Amino acid sequence: MAITFAPGQSPDDAAKALREMSARAKDLGPVLRAQSEMILRLIRDSFRNSRGPDGTPWKPLAQSTIDKRRRGSSKPLEDTGALRDGNSVTAGRMDLTIGTTVPYAGAQNFGATKSGTLKRKSGTRPAGTPWTTKIPARAFLPFTIAGTLIEIGPSALVFDRLARAVGNYITTGRTA
Fold first, then answer.
1. Potential cystine with 132: which of 47, 72, 87, 115 (Cβ 3.0-4.6 Å)?
2. Taking the model in full, what pTM does it have?
3. How far is residue 1's CA from residue 100's CA, in Å, rounded to a whole number?
C-alpha cells in the first residue's frame, strides 16, 4: 500500500495526520455526543407525527380507548406524555445507548398480548371469565425487536448522517 501526500508536505506531516486520525478513531465520544440529539429528535418526531422511525403510520386508537383517556386525546401513546418524555440517547466513547425509563415502553413499541381471567364479576361477565388484550406495535425507538437498527425511512436518513459525521470526525476532527 502506497501513501501519497501533497507537494510541499513531508512524510512526517502525513504520519502526524495518520496518528491524529487513529487517535480520533479510538474515541468517537465527541462526535457521538454532538450527533445524539438527532436520534432523540427522531424518537420525538415519531410521537409528534404518530409514525414509526421507518415512516409507518401508527394504528389509530379505538374509540373505547379514547373515551377512557385522562385528557381525551385521540393521539396514540400521548395520554400523559411519560412515554414520550422518558427516552434518552447517551454517548459513550465508542457507542450510543438508546433507552427509556418507562417500564411498559417495550410492549408499546413492539406490541404485546396480555391475557388472564377476571378476578371479580365485571358487568355481565362472571368472575373467572377469560380475557385477552392486544397492544398493537407502535414503534418509536429506531431498532427492531431483534436489536438491529431500522434502516429505512426517516431512521435511515438519521443513521446515514451519523455515519458521515463519524467519518468526517475521524478524518478532520470536526464534530458537526
1. 115
2. 0.82
3. 46
Residues 6-23 pLDDT 10s: 777 777 887 888 899 999
Residue 76 and residue 66: Cα distance in Å, rounded? 9
Of 79, 55, 56, give the one whose Cα is nearest residue 136: 56
- CB burial of residue 22 (10 Å; 0-12, 13-18, 19+): exposed
Q: Give the separation between CA 33 and CA 46, rounded to whole angstroms.
A: 21
Tell me the HSE value of 74 on the side-chain side, using a 13 A CA sphere: 4
Give start and end residues of each alpha helix (H) in 50-121. 63-68, 82-85, 105-110
96-100/112-117 β-pairing: unpaired
Closest CA to 144 of 113, 111, 110, 112: 110
